[in-house]
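Propose amino acids for all 217 sites.
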């Protein structure tokens, strides 16, 4: 367990007179492999280079780019990372070679024993999350817009209608799964948050309540 997770920039989203203003959380996973998750908008090139430099990492050293889904605020700077394998939602590629990986059947993509990319569809039908066992902070889930921000746990309107969900039933199921397995969540548009015992217990209660089982599993 030699990995560290550094959120380079906290994502945000807010409604303004002109519509929604938003950018995604951008995260560096540093260890035997170097991985960047979600590359912000196309206007954020310098921010990303600076953010990585703060941790002594250059774009050339990145081994994997993972975009949790294909929206424009999550993929804007993928072409800074020319030595990396690119995982964009369910699509895995290097240059013009595409690798078949059966995310559709629930199969995780294993980067190594401590880092895997799991399918977590819902926000779009091909969202993924990165699960990392860290050196000293437990298990991190970097989820993109599976979680908009911490507040959407108490206020589902935020993920269902503000962020929008292509498949809310599936998204709810994947949110619960991530809350069960993770100690920390890096959401798509808010600061990282710790998964509390209460959050885990609430998921337990839902799963144990057979009346609700049909809706939640
Ligand atoms: Zn987003």
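Proposal:
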């Amino acid at each position: 367990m030699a990995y560290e997770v550094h959120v380079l920039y906290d994502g945000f989203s807010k409604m303004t007179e002109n519509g929604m203003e938003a950018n995604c959380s951008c995260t560096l996973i540093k260890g035997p492999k170097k991985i960047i998750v979600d590359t912000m908008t196309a206007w954020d090139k310098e921010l990303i280079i600076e953010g990585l430099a703060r941790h002594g990492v250059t774009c050339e050293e990145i081994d994997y780019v993972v975009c949790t889904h294909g929206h424009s605020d999550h993929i804007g700077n993928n072409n800074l990372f020319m030595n990396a394998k690119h995982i964009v939602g369910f699509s895995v590629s290097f240059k013009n070679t595409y690798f078949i990986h059966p995310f559709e059947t629930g199969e995780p993509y294993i980067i190594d024993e401590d880092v895997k990319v799991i399918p977590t569809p819902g926000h779009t039908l091909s969202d993924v999350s990165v699960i990392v066992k860290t050196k000293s902070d437990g298990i991190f889930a970097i989820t993109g817009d599976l979680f908009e921000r911490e507040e959407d746990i108490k206020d589902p309107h935020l993920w269902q209608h503000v962020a929008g969900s292509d498949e809310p039933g599936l998204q709810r199921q994947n949110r619960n799964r991530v809350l069960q397995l993770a100690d920390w969540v890096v959401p798509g548009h808010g600061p990282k948050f710790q998964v509390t015992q209460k959050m885990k217990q609430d998921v337990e209660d839902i799963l144990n309540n057979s009346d609700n089982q049909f809706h939640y599993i």
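Residues 4-99+107-209 form a domain with the Metallo-beta-lactamase; Chain A fold (CATH 3.60.15.10). The mean pLDDT is 94.
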